[in-house]
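Next comes this protein.

***
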Amino acid sequence: MKKFCIVFLAVTIIILSGIGLSLPENKTETEYLRIHIRANSNLAVDQTVKYRVKENVVEYLTPFIAECKTKTDAQNMLLSNIDNISKVATNTLKQNGFKYTATASIKREEFPTRTYGTLELEKGFYDALIINLGSGDGDNWWCVVYPPLCFVGEGESLVYRSKILDVINDFFKKEKC
């Protein structure tokens, strides 16, 4: 009977671990918060400044995003900093000689399927920080604010962990002692 209980417990743990490992890929679109920066036009100068704005906005947001534990935390942080986000983008435009300004808002919009490393976000509606540069009619740049996929440094990668697998590993480490 003791052997049966151990086998049953092991099988249950394995099944739960499998479920835990697959959770990040099964996140619904409502669990992600995206960022979308729209250039004024498709002219080369507008496209170039879009990336400068992106760099400055990401730099500004990184310390705040690092403190966010949930999507709701991230949304609240963005909402409380929305004016500063607009200012960072507008100041970048002005520093680069542009007369138009930037606006920032949080909206729910449709996005196409997008792959970030091994994570694929399906086509669908997502909440997003939308930054329009000037008219916002040009090609755009987008990424994910929460979880912070576009806030990971060069050479780093986002790794999802299973808490259940961590518990199992800890259990077996203790057994060896």
